[in-house]
Amino acid sequence: FPSQARAGIISTVEVLKVMEAFVNEPNYTVWSDLSCNLGILSTLLSHTEFYEEILVFVRDVFSPIGERLGWDPKPGEGHLDALLRGLVLGKLGKAGHKATLEEAQRRFKDHVEGKHILSADLRSPVYVTVLKHGDSTTLDTMLKLHKQADMQEEKNRIERVLGAISQPELIQKVLTFALSEEVRPQDTVSVIGGVAGGSKQGRKAAWKFVRDNWEELYNRYQGGFLISRLIKV
């Protein structure tokens, strides 16, 4: 259905109306699909005057399920509920939902100070939210967490969300970090891809960065699957 809208066969408005009908849907797979398609639409609309309106739409569609799930696990809930919580809170946080942003910032502060360590399933949504609405201090804190991380899984988790940062000079800092020794060569693409998908500014900056550093990137990956993935993102 959304692919038909992207192809111009049916109206995007009709797709958005259908999406609104899923507001009480409890299924993770459905929300994952909605999130993916809204992400594609948001990327397209980021170059138009409708971008702020699509953010309002995201907040309206995702806030009821976000309120039902809350921030903490409920007794007897399954693995998919934890996945859904992370998906929904990340979507709301990126879209600037006030209550989600405030709670993410509070929990991030406690996490950094060691007062209350975030559970693994909440880290990505919290990280992406504070970065999206953060500043140079937020980015420096995140890079410090990356350096201190013992497990590669946590380093990768941080690398994937760094592109959420919004300011042009900080986007450049993330792109430079992508090619640094702090990032494994096979993970560089994830950092650049995160920047490309993070914002309109990030998309342009990432594309320029790839062009400017093409020789190094090409030599690094020698025409393998990572270079094709880099071009796709």
TrEMBL record:
Keywords (A to Z) from UniProt: Aminopeptidase, Hydrolase, Protease
- Taxonomy, superkingdom: Eukaryota
GO BP field: peptide catabolic process; proteolysis
Q: According to its UniProt record, what is one Pfam family this protein matches?
A: ERAP1_C
Q: Which Gene3D superfamilies match?
A: 1.25.50.20
Domain called ERAP1-like C-terminal: residue spans: 5-232
Q: Which GO terms describe its cellular component?
A: cytoplasm; extracellular space; membrane
The entry lists its GO molecular-function terms as: metalloaminopeptidase activity; peptide binding; zinc ion binding
Which family does the similarity line name? Belongs to the peptidase M1 family.
Q: What is this protein called?
A: PSA aminopeptidase
Q: Which gene encodes it?
A: Npepps
